[in-house]
Every structure is written in C-alpha cells, then in structure tokens.
Specification:
Blueprint: E1 11-14, E2 18-21, E3 33-36, E4 42-47, H1 57-60, E5 72-82, E6 90-99, E7 102-105, E8 107-110, E9 116-117, E10 119-122, E11 126-131, H2 141-144, E12 151-152, E13 156-166, E14 176-185
Parallel strand pairs: 2-6, 8-14
Antiparallel strand pairs: 1-3, 4-5, 5-6, 7-10, 9-12, 11-13, 13-14
C-alpha cells in the first residue's frame, strides 16, 4: 500500500480598492475576482473593525460588502474561503476612500486698497486648510495649515496652498490638495495735467 498526500490548492483573489469624490451616493469597492485551483464556490467575509483570521472570521466577519458615503477612508479586511475546503483561504485588506468635493479659485486684479482672497467651496463633512508658506499634506496640515483663508492687500503675488480634509477617518487617500494664487497688479497712476 502506498499513501498519497494531496495538498490543498491555491485560491487567488484580486480585491481592488475604491477611490472617488463625494457626491452623496454610497460607494464601495468592486466584488473580488477569485480564481481557484479546483472548481467550487467561495465565501467572502468582511470587517471594518478588525483583521480577519481563521479563528475569528465567522464571528467578526460579515458577507455584506461595506460601503461609505461621506468623505474619509474605511479600511476593509477580508477573508475568503473555499466552501469545499480544497484551497487555503486568502486574507488581506483594501479600502474605500471618498474625497471631499473641493474647488479653490485664485484672484487676479489691480490694486484698489481692499483685501482680496481666494474663493473656496467644499462638501459637507470636510474642512479646508490653507498655507502661504508650504504645500500641505496629511502629515503637516495640522501644524503648518490654518482654516483661515489668506488675504492680500498690496500689489504682488501670494501662492496659497490648500488641503481639503475629511472630518473623520482621513488619510492620504481621501484628501484633496492643490495651490492657487492671489495676484494684485500695481495700479496705474491717475495723472491729470
């Protein structure tokens, strides 16, 4: 007699993250694409609270794909099983990132003695930060940025950097950054002879 050992097959999954802009709709990532070494069915478990393992996926996971509506990032842990037990499970994480809507327009005009600034619009659930000193990112906006919109009165140019940050669960995937300028040209002298 001979004994043969047949090892479990390989289960492969492609789970793509989602990154988009807030529009009031529900967002989620695409259904995982799964390939198996053997034919059969699979079940995908999700959690937004904790990493899923062989020990906890049945109690801590859900078969409903998580969604996100408001600006921010949701990390999603997944655990994929072969229902027949022919393949080893696959586990990992992905994310749903919803960026706030954000428009910041510069100003260009001639000196008139008044203060001028940029105009900024952004979606609910976010705050916009500004700096005239340096570009802002997820790591420095709290120390180098301010929610006060910069102004300029005198002739010249001011570069305004901005970062729109979701009010909850913000990371580098869910912010909007950029720069614009406030340009005030010198006024022509009013000469009468």
């Amino acid at each position: 007699t001979r004994t043969f050992t047949i090892d479990k097959g390989v289960l492969r999954a492609t789970v793509k993250s989602y990154s988009g802009t807030y529009n009031g709709s529900v967002h989620t990532f695409m259904e995982p694409v799964i390939t198996m070494a053997a034919s059969g069915t699979t079940t995908v478990y999700y959690s937004t609270v904790q990493e899923l393992t062989q020990e906890n996926y049945l109690n801590a996971g859900s078969t409903t794909r998580p969604v996100r509506t408001n600006p921010g990032t949701t990390v999603v842990y997944y655990y994929i099983t072969d229902d027949q037990g022919y393949c080893y499970p696959v586990m990992g994480s992905t994310f749903i990132a919803v960026k706030p809507q954000c428009t910041v327009a510069g100003y260009s005009g001639t000196y008139d003695g008044s203060e001028h600034t940029v105009s900024a619009g952004y979606s609910a659930g976010a705050t916009i930060y500004f700096s005239t000193e340096k570009e802002l990112d997820i790591n420095n906006y709290q120390t180098d940025g301010t929610s006060e919109i910069p102004q300029r009165t005198s002739a010249g140019t001011t570069t305004v950097y901005y970062l729109a940050v979701p009010d909850s669960n913000a990371d580098e995937n869910s912010v909007v950054s950029g720069s614009t300028t406030i340009i005030i040209d010198k006024a022509e002298p009013d000469l009468t002879v």
